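Incident log, structure service

09:12 report received: a user says their structure output differs between two submissions of the same chain.
09:20 pulled the input from the user's history:
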Amino acid sequence: MADSPVRACKRFLVARCARLWRRPRLTPEQLRALRPGDILIVRQHNQMGDMVCATPALRAIREAWPEARLHLVTSPVNGAVVAHHPDLARVLTFSQKMWRRPWALTRFIRNLRRPRCEVAFILGSVSFSITSAAIALACGARWIVGPDSRPYGWDLSRHLFAVELPASPVVDRHAVLHNLAPLQAVGIDTGDRSTVVVPSAAERELARRVMADLGLRPGFWALHPGAGKRQNIWPAERFAAVARRAAAAGRQVLVMRGPADAEVVREMFALLAEGPGEQIVAAPLLPVGACAALLEQADRYLGNDTGMMHVAGALQVPSVALFGPTDPDLWKPPSDQVVALRSPRQSLDPRGGEFGWMENLDVDVVWEAWANLPGRTAAAPRDGEKRNA
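09:34 re-ran on a clean worker, output below:
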């Protein structure tokens, strides 16, 4: 499909500006030979699961330059996911609203330039971000390393970037490997593909207070019935059914939620109105880090294909992850503690071509998988916690 006149004009102007800001080139060998004191990493995408899957890429950069301080710029929704990542010296968040708020933008750029980063990495996903390129330029780094923009229709990267990384608009391998592949192409890699989420001491204290308020003991069973994408949601009545079975087996069940999950949680508890109330409780709306701290105390987790699934996987919580339209071979957390169940078929659904999957996941199948997880009664400290001790 041809570009609109506005988009075609934008592409032309961006390409012309890129030529004016042309940067010197480096070979991969020259890049790896640099000894920067500070490195900026820009990853602006909003999806929480994608950010968790990118944490091994952060580890790869840390291992390539173990003496450097790493500074990450990410979106506000993902700032909390990596706020206490052991490989990062600092996390800055950038909101698109800042383009309309000159004082906030000026303050952000001042903070961005304060460490005087010599190298900036742009870690892409399945799209090319002009904003990320602008942030890398604004930091003042001499060397910018970023994805090839041409697969996305932009003639930009060959002028601005000292090293162009291979880029793919399609996730054709596990998301962790998709994030690592561009770095691997220039000799930057890690042997540890595990993902990382580390709650802070304050977040763990908040989780303890929530547990006390709800009467929860360590070893409760946690489930999250929502998802950012409606087509990924297993029906609320089926979550209610497995929660009832867990309660009947004497388990405490914590129902977790995110900002977009109020409706599905309300529907689930309406269905549970006649059930064992004290055994099944709802968590308040909490920051991501506090949710992670709660999961550290859970015996097991059940949820849809969504960001919290990746948080549970990073924490090595024994989990059942429910998949429909997305492929678990690409998106299941890279942990042996996570069991993926995918709907066996799709039914016609008037809501659209991506719907009609989740209704075909059977309650008995999900319950058996969840009940038969090995579980854990005490959460061991994560690697990141040990490193921060």
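09:41 both user submissions now match this output. Likely a transient worker issue. Closing.
09:42 reviewer note: The domain at 17-184 is CATH 3.40.50.2000 (Rossmann fold). The chain has 17 helices and twelve strands.
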